[in-house]
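Same chain as my last thread, 132 residues:
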Amino acid sequence: MASLFRWAAVLSGMALLHPLLKFSGFTIKPKPRYVKIAAPLPRSGVHAEREFFLFAGQDRSVAWAVSRTCTHLGCRVNFLEDKQIIECPCHQSRFTPQGARLAGPAQRNLPVFPVEVQKDENGAVTGYVVTL
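reply #2:
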């Protein structure tokens, strides 16, 4: 009987602690996701995925990834290759390829994701790993 009472007390305590932790803003961060993109990238140096754009420099050994979610209302942005800008189709917020805000109703830059450039033993780029 005492064991049953202890279990009931533990469960009650956990039930009361959950809303308190939630109220205090405690969140468990999700595990990172890794997206691998094989080299070579297109001649433009831009690879589009659903969640990000992957950009590579001239020598392809420097790369960065920019979120495709606009910081204004969450629309999916597009890269305009001819103008070399990222533009939101909803309200025309504009960003540089590095994610910096240029114009429009968006007030924040686009999030940038870390990119690991993978190379073979000769130093040639074999792929890119984007951490989301």
